[in-house]
Amino acid sequence: MSLAPAGFRRGWPSANAQRTSSEKRKNVSTVSRPHAVTRSVRHSVMPRFPPAISLCLLLLTCWSAAASAATKGGLPQTTAFDVRDVTGRKVSFARLPQRIVVVGQGPFMPMHLLYMFPECRERLVGYEEKFKNTDTFLPFVDPQFSKKVALATNPGPEQVAALHPDLVVMKGSTPTPLGESLAVLGIPVVYLGMEDPERFLQEVDTVGVLFGNRPRAAEIRQFYQTRLDRLKSRVEGVKPAGKPRVLVMEYNDRGGKAAVQVPGKSWTQTIQAQRAGGNPVWLEATQASEGWTITNFEQVAAWDPDKVFIIPWFTLDPKEVLASFRTDPRWRLLKAVKGNELYIFPSDIFGWDSAEPRWILGMTWMATRIFPDRFKDVDMKQEVYQFFERMYAMEKSIIDTAVMPKILLEGR
Length: 412
Known about the structure:
This protein is of the alpha/beta class and 412 residues long. It has helices at residues 21-24, 51-71, 108-114, 120-123, 138-141, 157-161, 177-184, 197-211, 214-235, 268-275, 283-286, 297-303, 318-327, 335-338, 359-370, 380-392, 396-403, and strands at 81-84, 90-93, 100-103, 124-128, 149-151, 167-171, 189-192, 245-252, 259-262, 279-280, 293-295, 307-312, 342-344.
């Protein structure tokens, strides 16, 4: 099994670029429940109206807000509603959640989905800090992200409850002990799976309901569906014999010893290879596995794939890894190396191979490597710009400085 969640394997910033946990972690025991309404009123600049006119203006304002919500397809904040999450549980709410906390496995994955909605900037109050680069992307999306409460790894229900959440979001397809404990405390918990495209799109809709912003959910869904439809239309007519035999593998050399792993059948990396038009050579050997399976060079040589996609461990330099494979006497005998079909799977601050929103970039990129002729019109640089501009409202200048320099688009 992988020792870090998918997506943390590459792209970690250097240690000196990180703030220490003590520098950024708030004392959650001092957090108190906020008042229902807090605002600053500058009486000196507010016009005064007769009571009757003031009442009319108040009613008009309330009506306009309700009408706006109805027009946009959203829910008034006090409307009760239900959602059904990946576990099949129905979770009920008396109103739209206003204080959201993300904890559990790979918290950055659901957080990156939540931040596709503008409401997340105000409503996310805390998250579990699993790894040091949890907060190296989101500050580019939310300038106030550093003010969110960062909980220590594996927080207990008391630490989470101290933030007074009215929604806790966790990644996973089955309830966890922490989630069950929070439910006992009366805190709603919603699980997001995010491992396959269809589930991801369903959960985009779920998050749209939770934020009361279904139109934004429809925009996100359309962005992804357009690209999924393009992939399907261009590779679905390819017969099995015409699909290149591909290998996706995670590589690390911890302790000076090289290790290679391949993903399970239902994992994002396998789905990416299949949807991009490849024939994953490892599936027969790992069909019973639900996670990463360790393999060796002898097995890889027996597969002798047409194309190899390497996911380097996060501490490794991708270019150095690529060079080491190309010069290794054994690997040089493989068909993929001889044919210059050895690739590093791209990443920016986070990897494109993981079950978080960037999977669509990874899937699209794989298609341009597996079937370059069928996708020669796809400009991956433009795909990156469109993704971060339309999904996170990031300015091009920020993408150019914070994202683009980290991506090895050619993969070799």
